Amino acid sequence: xxxxxxHRPFRPRNTALARTLRRDAPPAERLLWRRxxxxxxxxxxxxxxxxxxxxxxxxxxxxxxxxxxxxxSHETRQAHDAVRDRWxxxxxxxxxxxxxxxxxxxxxxxxxAIAEAVQQERARKA
Length: 126
Known about the structure:
It is a single chain. By secondary structure, the chain is α+β, with helices and mostly antiparallel strands. The protein has helices at 15-23, 27-36, 78-90, 100-105, 107-125; strands spanning 46-51, 54-60, 65-70, 94-99. A hairpin with a 4-residue loop joins strand 2 (54-60) and strand 3. The longest helix has 19 residues, at 107-125.
């Protein structure tokens, strides 16, 4: 059978955990989501999407673009974040990281950076 993808074993998504992460989102994540939803920055994003063993705060599947927001807890998890980012890059994703403070203090700048990354990824895929 031509043009068939190789068989991949079924891995159920942890929908309950994703739903909980969305429900319990910090204020900065909710604020950014209001700007990302509806493809307002030029690409469609989803919240708290499972990617392998991780969850992406925001994911554009089409462009393989991940946006991560880091709160105070990430200061103590820098090694974990580095491993996670490496896994995502090796899987073909581009990761943009912002702090919750970036979103709270400079939402327009964060949105500009995301819109520029969307344009860059679209140009790269063209």
